[in-house]
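Reproducibility note. Readers wishing to regenerate the assembly model reported in the main text can use the exact inputs given here. Chain order matters: entities are listed in the order in which they were concatenated for prediction.
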Amino acid sequence: MLFRLIGAIALLAVSSLAWWLWQRRDGYLQGATRAAPWHREHRVSSGLLGVALGSRATFVQFSSDFCQPCRRASVVLARVAAELPGVAHVELDAEAHHELTRRFGVLRTPTILLADHAGDVVGRISGAPTTAQALDALGAVAE
Amino acid sequence: MPDQSTPAVETAHPHPVGIDPRGPRFGAAITALLLVAVLLLAPAAAARIVMAVVVLLFLIGVTAGAQGSVQGRVFRSLIRPRLAPPPELEDPRPPRFAQLVGLVITALGLVLDLAGVPYALAISAGFALVAAFLNAAFGFCLGCQMYPLIRRWAPGRREAV
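Running the prediction on these inputs yields the following structure tokens for the assembly.
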């Protein structure tokens, strides 16, 4: 019994560690090539997204059903976009945009691409960012 | 059974009626405790009984939703009245999906165990425990991480809806 109890506690400890390793970069902007070497596309355009790009930056958020962090990310990014001039936020249903998810190598939701004024993707955020992390990410985009 | 009518806060909320996000996490904590009991008791018959209870709880959660589940009722009647209102409400569909995943894993373990497969009960309880524990402790969102798998399993889902 004691042996099993130690085993159960060890299982929980290992899963906590795995969880920490898995999510420790969540919310932070990752360089496009380093975070997703498999993706083939580095540009977004208003034609591709169906809406106008921000004159400074655009957050392109891929969301899905069954995804609570996606809702949190939408709230944060919508507020940042509303308060900062030139910053746009587009939310796409990943399941309705298979072609885009394939092209950008989106493997989990929420995944947020950050594009500059020209539509060049400067990086991506996996998981929901806090407002501070979203503002920090915008530092990667020239004013 | 006392009538648990929906609080006015939730009916005033627009379209998807939100639930307190702490409810499913509390429920996951109960599930995790039961699954630890399964791990400690296996392979005795008592482990099988506890596992059957877990399967039943998941089944109720899937059919009745997070609000109607046994854990959800306990949370609303005993825990929620003692807590401050949540800062935000949550979509009830993701936790319900998580209940479905839990049901599949634990029911599979129970069936294989009854069929005489060694360690089936302990292994399935272990997997379910990891998911329930991460959900309760860190708010782990199984549906988000499983998104590419769901997409692969149900590519025609959108057409069907």
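We highlight two features of this model. Chain B touches chain A through 29 residues (CB under 8 Å). Chain B has a mean pLDDT of 80.
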